[in-house]
Amino acid sequence: KEKKKMFGSVVETSDYSVPAVQEEDISCLKLSPSVSPQYLIAGSWGNTARCWQIQQSGAAISANPCAEIKMDDAILSCDWIDNQRAIIAGVDKTARIWTLGNPTLQTVAKHDLPIKKAIWIPEMNLMCTASWDATLRYWDPRNPNPVGVVKLPDKIFAMDAKYPLLVAATSSANRDVYIYDLNKPDKEFKKMDSPLKLQTRCVTCFGSKSANDQGYTIGSVEGRVGVHYLNDPTGKQSFAFRCHRTADNSVAYPVHDIKFSHLGTFATCGADGTYSFWDKDSKSKLKGLQKAYDQPLVACDFNSDSTLFAFASSYDWHLGHNYKPNSKPAIYIHKVLPSEIEKKQKK
Predict the structure, then answer these.
(1) Whether 304 contacts 33, CB under 8 Å
(2) pTM more than 0.90
(3) Over 90: is that where the pLDDT of 217 sits?
(4) Which DSSP category does 338 fall into?
(5) What b/e string do you get for 262-301 counting C-beta neighbours within 10 Å, with b at 16 or more?
(6) For the segment 170-198, what is each residue's pLDDT rounded down to a tens digit?
(7) Partner of 175 at 20 to 30 A CA spacing, among 67, 106, 249, 337?
(8) Is 339 helix (H, G, I), strand (E, B) or coil?
(9) How far is it, in rounded angstroms, from Cα 282 to Cα 237?
(10) ∠ CA 115-275-159 to the nearest 5 degrees?
(11) Rounded Cα distance, 27 and 257, in Å
């Protein structure tokens, strides 16, 4: 076990440390949709994306770097189309398809300003991009022009989709959240104010194709997460809770990422250097670290069967450009125990 320090405390971790991580700060990561073989990609502020093949043997985990590609500017978002093709997007205003082993990137999407998020929607065979130019755009990789463009009033800070639901959070004064039914992707289904008071950092959709359990989680810079159900006429299902704060609540840290397991429970990671697992149905924490990593946790992801949980430890710039972190960026993989993500039984 290796020891790490944060705010003067000594902590221990048995999470696996991925080798050959980029020297530049990590901005995003994503585990591949198939577990056999299992891949991990990570993008950085230094313009590079790197891929590792993950192997498991019993309780042991190993990761071998297998590919790397470079963009023209910082990478802000990455996703998978399938186990051989990834999507990379960012500050150079493009989203490109990276076929592993191919040194040439295929440019698919173009915006007028940086792309904050690019995702693949398999049910539609389309890529969706969200940009600071205040547009959502849908792309068929076979065509040079978008098949759909949705204009919003403000730049988009966060976006996610789980078919047929898409949610985009903007930079407006009310932190407006726009909701779309992907059966009619060009028409706004609903607009609402964010349930949180401060700036949005991330949004993640949940639920099935049934409208009864569809919704989204939203994380902010104030150390708080909102859970919002679309079909909640009384408002009793939706709620918000505090997280990623000091024990006395005197300091609140940004919630950088939220990801769901295949069981419907979810993880948050934050600038306090910790991650936690949560059950929204019982409104309870399933797992919380008694330790903290020595840098903010900026991105996380479960693999498709939720046996692995990957997360990146890296400077997030919330202390400004003059701050010099003592540690280099790192990526870790946690071997998930079923008891850590199983929903609590209702009494």
Answers:
(1) yes
(2) yes
(3) yes
(4) H
(5) eeebbbbbbbbbbbbbbbbeeeeebbebebbbebbbbbbb
(6) 998 889 999 999 999 999 999 999 989 89
(7) 249
(8) helix
(9) 11
(10) 25
(11) 11
